[in-house]
């Protein structure tokens, strides 16, 4: 992305690097929502206009910091393409395809391992998943009920998908590790469906959480 | 456990250590089910009777290798105590209590981090969870249907519980990270219930995995 812009003025790679370092620090400390381009510019010692010049939007700067294995702009339309009914199924399928892609797989599992070992990497992974993936998938959905539960729904979806990656690819629980994608989708999609739009807050005593 | 047995003969701590090392290698390469006391004795260069003398059963030797944060012999009765209806609820609650205990919590999260970074630690964690926890919980249950699905059910339970630990304690997704235990139990127990005894293999095209 920045390749075509190098050489515009001397030292701009250094400036770009300074901004990226400041952005990584800000995003991993205050999160995506709590960080502004202005704060990043200030801590990098540059003008906010320069940050916009190099990286465009805050979102693009965030993606330049996280360097996710897949571009959400390509992923999201795939998940949403055929209407809301199949969203849980397509979330699980797209997640599995990403984890099993020859390039995206190792990259994502590297993020997961890094996020487990290093606090700042974990925060970036969390914010990437929350703000760039789930928030966009649920944007404008009218069937998710009380919007104040959206962050809890997002956390629960993450708990199942990240746990799926951990057990299928890292810990290699069998037969989950070698199961066909279809079987995994069948088993897990209803969980994602319930976390996205189902009843997740019924009273404990109602018996809903029993067997 | 071994403390009271030291001094019985000179060098027995070395022998004990040799057996433990051989056991760790065997369990992490061939798994719990694929390993016998005899194999361990052979690769440690001692008699099988000596392995039994120091460690008792294969199960006890396995626990001495894994050194789990909690003793399954204490945990399982707690989960099963009040009959099968509440098992999913009590699985999630017991898991959360273990993860949040002042001693057991850091120990379990250490196992999870170790299992994510080191293949052999991952295999031990997997086999501990499978053979010492879930297998015992489901022992003699008649409502789990076709027993050949038991390993898949176990994998799926692990995917949700380990993912819950990852997002709640390590990546700290909010509000999951600071949610009350009751709220987490309410949200997650139905998932565990379905993985344990529900329909996890319905045909994809039946629409069961849709929203």
UniProtKB/TrEMBL annotation, chains A, B:
Keywords of the record: DNA-binding
Pfam families per record: TetR_C_16, TetR_N
Protein name per UniProt: TetR family transcriptional regulator
PANTHER family named in the record: HTH-TYPE TRANSCRIPTIONAL REGULATOR RUTR, TRANSCRIPTIONAL REGULATORY PROTEIN
Organism: Streptomyces synnematoformans
Ranges of the DNA-binding region feature: 36-55
Source taxon at top rank: Bacteria
Keyword DNA-binding: yes
Domain HTH tetR-type, first and last residues per copy: 13-73
């Amino acid at each position: 992305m920045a390749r075509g812009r190098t050489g515009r003025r001397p030292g701009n790679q250094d400036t770009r690097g300074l901004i990226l370092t400041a952005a990584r620090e800000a995003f991993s400390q205050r999160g995506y929502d709590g960080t502004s381009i202005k704060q990043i510019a200030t801590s990098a010692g540059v003008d906010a206009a320069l940050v916009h010049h190099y990286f465009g939007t805050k979102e693009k700067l965030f993606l330049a910091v996280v360097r996710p294995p897949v571009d959400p702009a390509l992923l999201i339309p795939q998940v949403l393409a055929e209407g809301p009914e199949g969203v849980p199924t397509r979330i699980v399928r797209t997640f599995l395809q990403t984890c099993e892609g020859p390039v995206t797989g190792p990259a994502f599992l590297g993020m997961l391992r890094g996020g487990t070992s290093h606090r700042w990497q974990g925060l970036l992974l969390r914010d990437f998943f929350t703000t760039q993936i789930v928030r966009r998938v649920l944007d404008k959905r009218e069937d998710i009920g009380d919007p104040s539960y959206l962050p809890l729904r997002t956390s629960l979806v993450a708990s199942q998908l990240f746990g799926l990656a951990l057990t299928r690819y890292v810990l290699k629980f069998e037969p989950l590790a070698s199961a066909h994608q279809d079987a995994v989708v069948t088993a897990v999609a209803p969980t994602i469906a319930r976390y996205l739009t189902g009843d997740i807050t019924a009273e404990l005593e109602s018996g809903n959480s029993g067997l």
